[in-house]
Design brief:
mainly alpha; about 0% strand
Length: about 180
C-alpha cells in the first residue's frame, strides 16, 4: 500500500542519513587469542557455571525460557492454522504485536527494585505455566470455541510475552551479579 511504501522510504532515507553522518571508527589492534585459548576460556566458563549452584540454577531458568520460546515459535503456525482457524501466512500479524506488547509491559514491570529476582522469576514462570495450562485444559475439555478462543489467545499471548520477559530479565540479572 502507499502508506507502507512511504514508511519504508522514510526509514530508508533515515538509514542513509545516519550511515553517512556517523563518525569514522578507527580500527583497533587487538591481540587475538588462539583457538586453544578461546576453548580454554569457554571450558573455564562452563566449569564456573557448574561449580556455582546459584549461577547454574538461574542459567538453567534462562535456557528453559529460551527453549519454551523456540518451542512456541515452532508450534504456533500449525496451532493457529488447525485450532484457531487463522491461516499460517496471517498468524504472525496476530502473534508478534501481542507478544511484543507483553514484552514491553514486562520490561516496564521488571524495573522494580523492591521485588527480588527470585520473586520476579516465580511470577514469570507462574504466568507462563498458568496461561499454557489453562489453554491446554480449555482445548482438551472443549470449554472455549469460536471467537471466545481468539479472545483467550489474544490475552494469553500478551501474558506469555510478559511472563517470559520478566523471567529472562530477572534470571540474567542474577547471572550478571554472580559472575565475576
Amino acid at each position: 500500500s502507499p502508506v507502507t511504501l512511504s514508511i519504508c522510504l522514510v526509514l530508508l532515507l533515515l538509514s542513509i542519513i545516519l550511515g553517512v553522518t556517523l563518525p569514522k571508527l578507527e580500527p583497533t589492534r587487538q591481540n587475538h587469542p588462539t583457538l586453544a585459548k578461546k576453548i580454554k576460556n569457554i571450558l573455564s566458563g562452563f566449569k564456573f557455571v557448574m561449580k556455582s549452584k546459584t549461577v547454574w540454577y538461574f542459567f538453567s531458568i534462562f535456557v528453559l525460557i529460551q527453549g519454551l520460546v523456540f518451542f512456541g515459535v515452532t508450534l504456533a503456525p500449525e496451532f493457529f492454522s488447525e485450532i484457531a482457524g487463522i491461516p499460517i501466512d496471517k498468524s504472525p500479524i496476530l502473534v508478534m504485536p501481542l507478544i511484543g506488547l507483553g514484552v514491553v509491559i514486562g520490561s516496564i514491570f521488571v524495573h522494580r527494585p523492591e521485588l527480588s529476582e527470585g520473586l520476579l522469576i516465580s511470577i514469570g514462570l507462574s504466568i507462563v505455566g498458568m496461561v499454557s495450562a489453562l489453554l491446554g485444559l480449555a482445548l482438551m475439555l472443549d470449554l472455549i470455541i469460536g471467537s471466545l478462543l481468539l479472545v483467550y489467545i489474544v490475552f494469553g499471548l500478551i501474558f506469555l510475552g510478559f511472563g517470559a520477559v520478566i523471567t529472562m530479565v530477572a534470571a540474567r540479572t542474577v547471572i550478571q551479579k554472580k559472575v565475576p
